Amino acid sequence: MENHLLEIFIFIAICYPAIGAVVGAIWYSSLQTRQFRELQALDQQEKAGENDEDEVFPAPQKAADRRPRRVLLISSDDLGTQDKLWRIQYAYDIEHALEQLKVSRFDLIAMPLSEEAGQFLRFVAQRYPSTCRAVQCQDIGPSEAFQTAPDAHLYLRSDSPPATIQEQLLRGTSLDIENIEKALSNTFGNLATLPTLPTTFARIQQVVSDPDCSVEKVGELIASDISVASKVLQLVNSAIVNTRTPVCKVEHAVKLIGLRGIRDLILSIEVLNELATKAPHLRSYLADMQLRSVRAAKLAQRILGGGPHSDDATSACLLHSIGQITLMTHVPESYQQIQTLHEQTGRNIEELEMEILGVTHDDISAYLLRLWGMPHAVVEAVQFWKNPAEIKHFQFNSMDATHVALNLVIGFETGDIRKAQIDHDLIYALHRSRSVDKWQIQAATICEDISSLPTGMLDREVA
């Protein structure tokens, strides 16, 4: 009898895990199938009704920023707008412009597109990185203009209505650099204590800007830093792409996510590693923030489906938290005071930051990205991802995708994705209200699939 009971016990002990695994696999498969069918139904519903919303109802706009902008206009007599907001100084040629740059500070530099303009704007990007740079184009589109002047933030069509040009200029100069630097000087004492341009990112930035850049060259450069290369491969395999076979070479990772994607992924890795070294007590928080950023980046890609806007949104999601982490690392007492007041009073944390520090963490993030030469669309998305309606626009873009992706991921993390802080009025105005249910399903699926990141992502050395 005892032997019979023992045999039964052994049989159950062996079979129970297998039965549990089979049941779990069946449940997970049915869940994935149901989600796939729901997404298909939502796609059909969206396509069937995408012409239903014919009119655009813009969301309430923030009060116009009437801060005067100092403009240096080179080799041109017309900016495209006569608004008194723009305090324009004229330069007859580049030599004259260089003289004026030595004695005055400008919010915006604009000049007609040419090979010479491309070279001059590269110099400006290196010497005066916080200044907005614009080129005036005639019969050429932004993608072609970018080949000539890749360091420009704005590409102004000469035949555009003055109101359109005005909106572009306002968006390009929305960062109040002078006020931000004044607040940072008061807070940090010395701007040199801010995070500097990471080494590997700076090298890749230079290589990528070369027209003869190749995947192999970038791969070799990344592989030369063993720590960074290891973390890139860990993230690519665990979260960024879905592949049946592991990605073992950096060159393969570059081909999968592109030169731009690998560059910005390295920036986020290096910055977080640097801050984790300076504030080891924040390591757990930084790991959580990195997980959120990666989840949101993947969701933003899914929302936009590829292309330049998708690249911009991915970068913005990966880099959105730099300002807040910088404050927590460098001025911990002041930021602890802000967080305590936020918890006790329920007041908006950005409002408290302005009151105590004179600048918000999103402004700091955008400021750093501007200094590091990130595209204007990324800077704008990072600055306004919480309130994209503050920027007047009529097409769903990278800033809106960043807003949706980050808020849905935060909603998942806090336990109720359907109460995520999405601006539904703006989404309706941009003809995307039918997509919200689909985005929620995608967000939940991505967050469940990327439940954690590899351990050691914030360690300096590779184990």
3D structure, described in words:
The chain is mainly alpha-helical. The chain has 2 domains: 105 residues, 3-Layer(aba) Sandwich (Rossmann fold); 270 residues, Hypothetical protein af1432 (Orthogonal Bundle), CATH 1.10.3210.10. 62% of the residues lie in helices and 6% in strands. The chain has 20 helices and 5 strands. Strands 2-1-3-4-5 form a 5-stranded parallel β-sheet, with helices on both faces. Strand 3, helix 3 and strand 4 form a beta-alpha-beta unit. Helix 8 packs parallel to helix 10 and helix 11 packs antiparallel against helix 12. The chain is globular, with a radius of gyration of 25 Å.
Topology of helices and strands:
Layout: H1 2-49, E1 69-74, E2 86-91, H2 94-103, E3 108-112, H3 115-127, E4 132-137, H4 142-148, E5 154-157, H5 162-172, H6 177-188, H7 199-208, H8 215-223, H9 226-240, H10 250-278, H11 283-304, H12 308-319, H13 322-330, H14 332-345, H15 349-356, H16 361-371, H17 376-384, H18 398-414, H19 424-429, H20 436-449
Parallel strand pairs: 1-2, 1-3, 3-4, 4-5
Helix pairs in contact: 1-20, 7-8, 7-10, 8-10, 9-10, 10-12, 10-13, 11-12, 11-18, 11-20, 12-17, 12-18, 13-14, 13-16, 14-15, 16-17, 17-18, 18-20
Mean pLDDT: 81
Structural class: mainly alpha
Low-pLDDT runs of 5+ residues are 49-61
CATH class value of the largest domain: Mainly Alpha
Tell me, briefly, the overall form.
Answer: globular
Q: Count the strands?
A: 5
- The CATH superfamily name of the largest domain is Hypothetical protein af1432
Largest sheet: 5 strands, parallel
What is the beta-strand fraction? Answer: 5-15%
CATH topology of the largest domain, by name, is Hypothetical protein af1432
Number of DSSP helical runs: 20
- Gap between N and C termini, in Å? 54 Å
